[in-house]
Write a structure and sequence with these properties.
Length: 316
């Protein structure tokens, strides 16, 4: 069965599988997606499933298989067709919604560099990485949500960076187990060896947690900037994305509030917390003029994009 939309059709089975992937792996996004119009929620799930499939490849045990699979996706983006149903569903979505494929290509290129061991040395490297794996998705989401004003793009980029910094702050131990350290080494007083993090070395974990707090401080700057771009979203999309932002930002609050428990498991926001942040988002969207499409358009802070010079949509 096909879902007819615009000039082409998306397979019903592909969309059902995409929603299942989102529900299983992207709980915060699945929660917020319930606030979208049905078609937009379906399309967002297709985009998420594509990104998830690529990310899972990069996280695979065998680097050669990961690189081969990502190369296949990269070629599919150039050809516009793929034998893989998840990738092909995204390509059809890109046709339906006239999505630019360059952000998807940047995403795949960044994930190619992510295969195997990772050590980031500087804040600039971290920000460019966050752009590559998350801001690119934010740019694509602008198309999914029918945002046509290009002034929204810098703020979408900022939300992607903020969320990815939250991910990195949350997943230090999980990443270390894959021989990856995304925390910028220049911010730490000692070398952040992933083996020492996994083994529970007190000094290394203490130094890493101090950098985690710095990363979350940076994330806050990008969340605040992203708030100014919410006005460009249609009403229901504005509420959904604002909810996703608040829930994700709250994960950082959990990380900061559980220093003694941080290394014992992944930090998350439960159902009660999600309900609270949904109500916060609704209240803010209704009561705060900065979320309304009226008055003077917001000015983006170019300092936030200094590290992103040359990347699509960035405004350094």
């Amino acid at each position: 069965m096909l879902i007819m939309t615009g000039i082409t059709a998306l397979p019903r089975q592909a969309e059902s599988q995409a929603r299942l992937t989102l529900k299983r792996h992207g709980k915060s996004f699945y929660w917020a997606g319930a606030l979208l119009e049905a078609e937009q929620a379906q399309h967002a799930a297709v985009l998420y499933a594509f990104c998830r499939a690529a990310d899972d490849l990069a996280d695979g045990i065998d680097p050669s298989i990961a690189r081969s699979g990502l190369s296949d996706i990269r070629r599919a983006l150039e050809r516009g067709v793929s034998a893989d149903p998840t990738v092909n569903a995204f390509l059809q979505l890109a046709t339906v919604q006239q999505l630019p494929l360059m952000p998807a290509q940047v995403l795949i290129d960044t994930l190619m560099d992510d295969v195997g061991s990772v050590r980031l040395q500087t804040w600039d490297e971290l920000l460019r990485y966050a752009y590559g794996v998350a801001s690119t998705v934010g740019i694509l989401m602008c198309g999914v949500l029918r945002v046509r004003d290009s002034a929204a793009l810098p703020f979408a980029i900022d939300l992607g960076i903020a969320m990815q910094l939250t991910n990195i702050a949350r997943d230090v131990l999980e990443d270390a187990a894959r021989d990856r350290v995304y925390l910028p080494q220049e911010a730490a007083p000692i070398r952040l060896h992933p083996q020492h993090l996994v083994a529970g070395d007190t000094a290394t974990r203490g130094a890493a947690y101090a950098v985690v707090e710095q990363v979350l401080h940076q994330a806050d700057r990008y969340y605040r900037s992203a708030d100014h771009g919410m006005r460009y979203l249609p009403w229901r999309a504005r509420l959904a994305i604002l909810t996703a932002a608040r829930v994700y930002e709250a994960i950082g609050g959990v990380v900061q509030g559980c220093r003694d428990e941080y290394w014992r498991g992944r930090s998350y926001v439960g159902v009660a917390g999600k309900c609270w942040h949904t109500s916060r988002a609704l209240s803010a969207a209704l009561s705060q003029p900065r979320y309304w499409l009226s008055g003077q358009p917001p000015r983006h802070d170019p300092q936030l994009h200094q590290a992103l010079r040359g990347l699509p949509g960035a405004q350094p």
